[in-house]
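Suppose you are handed only these lines of text.
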Amino acid sequence: MTIKEILTQTTKKLQQSCQRPRFEAELLLAHHLNKERIYLHAFDNKEVKNFEAFEALVERRANHEPYEYIVGSTSFYDIELKVEQGVLIPRPETEILIDLVAEIIEKKNITSIAEIGIGSGAISVVLARKFPNLKIIATDICDTPIRVSRQNIETFGLEKQIEVRKSNLLDNVNEPIELVVSNPPYIAQDFILESNVVDYEPKEALFGGVIGDELLKEIVLEVKKRGIKYLACEMGYDQKEPMESFFKQNGIKSYSFYRDLAGFDRGFVIILNVTS
Ligand SMILES: C[S@@+](CC[C@H](N)C(=O)[O-])C[C@H]1O[C@@H](n2cnc3c(N)ncnc32)[C@H](O)[C@@H]1O
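From them, the structure of the protein bound to S-adenosylmethionine can be written out as follows.
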């Protein structure tokens, strides 16, 4: 079959599972051929070899598997990161959290931070690349994110800056830390998610408890207990009110919330030991 014929057939196959079936068909075929998308348009009469292998990729996408797991990588911030099933695919809104944290690091000359829940390494890798003097201890409770994040750290030559530890929250971190950043699981246990998310992405990365904000609250208490000055976290669009009440109940006075590009509440930054 030619490129043109394959694209027509694949577009039809992906109609139920993808919002942009033609675009995704092109991405998958370009990946299979190890070419840029433009090649498909320039050489649309070329025969495609190893069609069975390509069909297997299409089958996975037709079953709602995320494109990023099929090709094994994703674009995030200014880099390409390895991902696989068992690791959350980093989301564009997390780039806002990184920019907020980068601002604090720069203004306050911070050199030692911790990340809770490293996943693919998205946050720590981008921050370490921005600040070559920054040291990061990053934790995760799951083995796959620990392995994959270490691979990404190695790809960017950041082994001297980022240390990954298996740990619940900061249990295995005893060094002095100036700031904690986290995009923890924050979705309520019974929240209905789309198939491409719930059937493929790790539960440990998605669900924060029965209500959803349980782990966020644990992180706040842990950071407060340790006297760490800054905490920046991503959260769910409906968690501003409960988190604000929680801060007040715990005597935390200096905090601000931020929104994502769609205008939804998306996270907070706390400054501890200032007035609280
Ligand atoms: C939402 S993902 C975020 C991954 C990555 N930081 C990002 O922004 O793409 C949350 C991560 O936290 C990890 N995690 C969940 N509970 C944890 C805990 N109690 N302590 C440390 N890590 C945890 C999960 O395994 C997962 O990798």
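What can we learn from it? The longest helix spans residues 94-108. The longest strand covers residues 265-271.
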